[in-house]
Structures are given as C-alpha cells and as structure tokens.
Specification:
Strand order of the largest sheet: 1-4-5-3-2
CATH architecture: 2-Layer Sandwich
Strand content: 15-25%
Helix content: 25-40%
Number of strands: 5
Radius of gyration: 13 Å
Number of domains: 1
Order of helices and strands: EHEEEHEH
Oligomer: single chain
Largest sheet: 5 strands, mixed
Shape: globular
C-alpha cells in the first residue's frame, strides 16, 4: 500500500475504539480518527466468531485488498480500523468493497472529487 502503514499495537486499536468515530453496516464496522501524519494507518480485525484461522485470514486478505484497490480515493492523515462482523462470511468481494466505500463516505474519509 503506497500511502498506508499497518496499525499493530493494541493501545492504538483501543485508542481508536474509545476516541474515534465509527460507522456500522451489517458486515463491517469502520473506526477512524485523524493521526496528524501524512499517511493513513490501517488495522483489520476479524474475531473468533467469524470462524477458524483460515476463514479469518481470508476475510482479512479481502478487506486489505478492498482498501488497497481504493486507497487513492481515501483522504490522507487518518488511522482506520476495519472490524469484520459475522455476516461478512457470506458476502461477496463486491459487497465488501461497496460497504467499505459507503462507510468511508459516511465518515467523510473519501476525497471530495470521489463523493
């Protein structure tokens, strides 16, 4: 990802959950908060309810790819956390991408010309 780094530390995720803005869909939750840097930092979580490790990793790969393909549409300078919900197991790639962009638009994360 050209303009992004990964969020890895637990305290960074907790800070986003506590102080960030969020938007919810049936298959996905998106948390965001300005980070004061020239890059986006993204974290992806898929809990145990989604399934075994193979299923969780597949979901994380899909979410990462959805973000990577649309990365240029996102405004820069945010920390983002994508939380997969149980119903994401039956969602297609297209549905996941559509929901991600819808949630990003709701949180004003998309660049102005993309809205």
């Amino acid at each position: 990802m050209e303009h992004s780094q990964s969020l890895k530390k637990n305290h960074e995720f907790r800070r986003l959950y506590a102080r960030g803005k969020s938007a919810v869909s049936p298959i996905l939750v998106l948390y965001c908060r300005k980070n004061g840097r020239g890059i986006n930092r993204i974290g992806i979580t898929a809990g145990g309810k989604i399934g075994n490790a193979v299923q969780r990793n597949r979901i994380r790969r899909r979410l990462r790819e959805c973000y990577r393909v649309n990365e240029k549409r996102f405004s820069v300078g945010y920390d983002l956390v994508l939380v997969a919900r149980v119903r994401i197991r039956s969602a297609s790639y297209r549905q996941i991408e559509e929901q991600l962009l819808r949630l990003a638009g709701r949180l004003d994360l998309l660049k102005q010309e993309e809205k």
